[in-house]
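Q: Hi! First time doing this. I have a protein sequence and I read that you can turn it into a structure. Is that right? Here it is:
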Amino acid sequence: MSRYRVTVDTGGTFSDFVVFDEETGTYRILKVPSTPDDPGRAVLDGLELLREQGVRPEQIGFFSHGTTVATNALLEERGARVGLAVTAGFRGIYETAEQSRPYGPAVFDLGYSKPAPLAPPSRTVEITERIGAQGQVRVELDEQSVRDAIAVLEAERVESVAICLLFSFMCPDHEQRVARAFREAHPEWWISTSSDLLPQIREYYRLSTVVVNAYVSAVLGRYVEQLGDRLDELKVAPASRFTMQSNGGSAPFKSTSARAVGTILSGPAGGVTAGSALAAAAGIDDIVTFDMGGTSCDVALIQNGEPLISDRNKIGGRDIALPMLDINTVSAGGGTVATVDAHGALHVGPHSAGAVPGPACYGRGGDQATVTDANVVLGYLNPTEILGGAMSLDRDLAETAIRTRVAEPLGLDLLRAADGIIEIVNVKMGEAIKAISTERGFDLREFTLVPFGGAGPLHAGRIAVDLGVPRLLVPPAPGATSALGLLMSNVKHDHVRSRLTDIERLSADEVTDLFEWLRGPAAEQLAEEGFAPEQMRFRYFLDMRYAGQGYENPVPVDSVPLADGDLARYRSRFDDIHRSCHGHAAPGQPVEVVNYRLEAIGVVPKVELARLDEADGPVEAALAGTRRAYFAGAGGMVDVPVYDRHRLRAGHRFAGPALVDQYDATTVVCPEQVVTVDPIGNLIVELAE
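A: Yes, that's right. Below is the predicted 3D structure, encoded as structure tokens:
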């Protein structure tokens, strides 16, 4: 009998497990060291530890995985050897790209060079064919050019092939025929077609996305296959295995490799989902999620309970045009390294000590000063009670690293050097928060910061004070919140078709017909994945733009079929959305519908989390002692109360400065803040009156 749902989020330092007991409605967490050389080994290590704790593999009826395999393959440039097939005469599209230099710091970088193409010209082949802009066949597919292309790709020893032919989103026949020929000639090749992955306009973005997919699909596909075989041996959730997607939903194991590019933000997406759900349960709609782990910090903005979605992203310098949660990532984590340059300037990041050897305080041979070492020196972390005592931190090694690497080169005392590291990394993360909020016209005074990840609650209090954020919501299990989000994620598939038309020329019936055409295959896919009709949900969007613009805004459609007058209403709604996003609107200008989007959602059984018991005594009952920690506003190193998170109950309230210790994280409460425990077990941290 299946009893448990298990989710695993693989991070740079730890792999986080959440085990949900369907009989009791409670969950517990487990953290095991990540194994970068074989991420699946950490998954098996965790399952073995769970077996020792009484959770037998065959009792696990649901398994979901947030993985960084595709992300790391792209960022570290160790993906498959990719070939690219394009329409004859258009081999320069990939190299030409956007025909412009990137904005931001790259503008001032005199040594800037574009990232090397994942499919270089030597592995780019031309197929003689041509589909017109309206989907008509202008040049028939030349079978000999396909055979010639296969010969070239064979000689180049490719492992994976991306196929992107001109206007294939209007007529996919030629692409599909080329793909069949490639598969027949080489069944071992991983084939990605743009007409399956992203059938929409803008040739370069479609091409770049399918090339990235081909680059990472072989790596992720082999990983998922091998992990699936291991799970089969253990009899873990044979019918319910999922991977987290960048769009905030999950997808079955069997369909993961075909859309591997959709997992690029797999781990961070789980955290956004969990943060949104926990905040909604607390009656809070507008939040900024703040996920700080061992190697990076990911922030996202959620307004009115809905996370922002972006359909054009750049990851590692590569353009990806699939819908993704709008997450801003910076290189700032517990393992981020602090250095002093030849001019005497202190830098924190972007390099990380990673899981191996990790920060100096881990005692694994690392000798560089990191953010975690600074937190140990400042007294925020309890060196002997990490992961419930399963891991200890060496304060002497942390002090030595910061003294020799930072304090002495700068002529500072140890505490000032450690505090300087924290100040710099906090500013860096604060800038990431401002980039998705104030720089887009949002007022942070109207938002709640939701920190999680192993290091998030350590830093969020101070950042909130600096940025003027009035409230924090610290989840019950910060270190495993991303893994918790995997429990709360429905299966989600995005479908899109491009049909560029002036909205005045469209009828409600035409729009209805196209949406129903999209819904048919989407419903079939969900049915194949085991979802009954009552478990299916569909959301519809029209991507609109003012005529002549080079970008669109998605406009939600309330229901399908459309009625007379609906298109005029959505036209007006577009003006409002455009004004909100860009600060202006042009109600009198012609509007075009560019894309029709469908979100197909398979609703998984909802997780009902147990509520926290009401406090029946004073908060002092949760005191675990005191610890000397550094608070500049309180006079430097001072003795502060340390609360045991697991002994706190709903309604307990206390003021800072204080520390809250728990298995997977430590929360730092600043002197100007006060904490209230809510019924779900969240810590609500607010500015004192």
